[in-house]
Amino acid sequence: MNNKKGPTFLFAIIAIILGWTLYKQFDFENLKFEKPALAILYTLTFLVSVYFLIKNFREK
Questions:
Q1: Which residue range is the domain that position 50 belongs to?
Q2: Where are the transmembrane segments (predicted)?
Q3: What is the pTM of this model?
Q4: How many domains does the chain have?
């Protein structure tokens, strides 16, 4: 029996934290990020975590 709830929970927490961080750093008046280089890194990590969440969901 293989328990895969740990990685799913971890990727969900990562996606929530990074999504909130991206939302907070975005300036809606100027439509720009405060720190563009860091926003790129956050976006890539967010997309990878969402990818793994969807992949784990489809396997079930």
A1: 5-59
A2: 7-23, 35-54
A3: 0.83
A4: 1
